[in-house]
Design a protein that fits this description.
Blueprint lengths: L1 H31 L1 E17 L2 E8 L7 E21 L5 E14 L6 E5 L2 E8 L13 E17 L2 H6 L5 E10 L2 E3 L4 E23 L4 H21 L1
Antiparallel strand pairs: 1-10, 2-8, 3-7, 3-10, 4-5, 4-6, 4-8, 4-9
């Protein structure tokens, strides 16, 4: 009778060991292929300078060893500064609007297509009297606005396979920047305007990707430890 009981016990323990081994192996395999969403970013800037101009920014490409790209975010900030002047030559009072503006384009390499465009604007609206007789951008019929500043952030996201290929690899990618002045005044039939426009920009590029990591999460560790503990307990009881 004792022999039969021992055989049943040994059979049960054997099956239990196999089951816990299978569970532990499955947990380890799941942990080894765990996918986590991650991101990495790089930045570069274009110095403020008089429009119109052409420049570049240089940023690191995405390293495919990190994982699989899912999207690329382009955070493009256009910066504008300068002066706006006007003189109304009308024979009656009017309202004059001056727009100090620039257009800053971020383009793909080698004269490629536009990625994102920022158009910062500094606007002023003034009451002007009938022409006061002097073209001095002041008095009652004119005005000079100095120290104007404007910033505009534009975000563009790409999930294009061609962009994934373009922005992946070793080293840096060089992107073209084109800035043009787009200032204007309106409101008077006879109006003189002068603008001094400078612009700059900054780019933050964010690579979003799925990363495969061999490091289990805390819950996975707990399952592994529990399985190993049960095996050790059974072995001690048998001995």
């Amino acid at each position: 009778m004792q022999t039969i009981v021992m055989n049943i016990y040994n059979s049960f323990v054997g099956k239990f060991r196999k089951a816990t081994t299978v569970i532990a192996s499955a947990v380890l395999i799941a942990a080894a292929t765990q996918v986590n969403a991650a991101s990495i970013s790089y930045t570069d800037t274009v110095d403020v300078q008089s429009t119109n101009f052409v420049d570049t920014v240089s940023l690191s490409k995405f390293d495919p060893a990190l994982g699989t790209l899912t999207s690329i975010d382009f955070e493009w900030t256009g910066h504008l500064e300068g002066t706006a002047k006007f003189e109304s030559l009308d024979g009656s009072a009017t309202i004059v609007t001056t727009n100090l503006a620039a257009e800053l384009k971020l383009k793909r390499p080698g004269g490629g297509s536009d990625i994102v465009i920022a158009t910062p604007l500094a606007q002023n609206v003034d009451n002007a009297s009938a022409f006061d007789g002097t073209i001095d951008f002041g008095g009652t019929s004119g005005k000079t606005h100095t120290g104007l500043v404007a910033d505009l952030l534009v975000v563009e996201t790409s999930t294009s396979a061609s962009d994934f290929a373009l922005f992946s690899g070793i080293g840096n990618i060089i992107l073209d920047v084109a800035a043009t002045g787009d200032s204007m005044g309106s409101g008077a039939g006879n109006l003189i305007t002068q603008f001094s426009t400078s612009a700059g920009a900054s780019l933050k590029i964010i690579y979003n990707y799925d990363a495969v990591t061999p490091v289990p999460e805390p819950s996975t560790y707990a399952l592994i430890i529990a399985g190993v503990g049960l095996l050790s307990l059974r072995r001690r009881r048998r001995s």
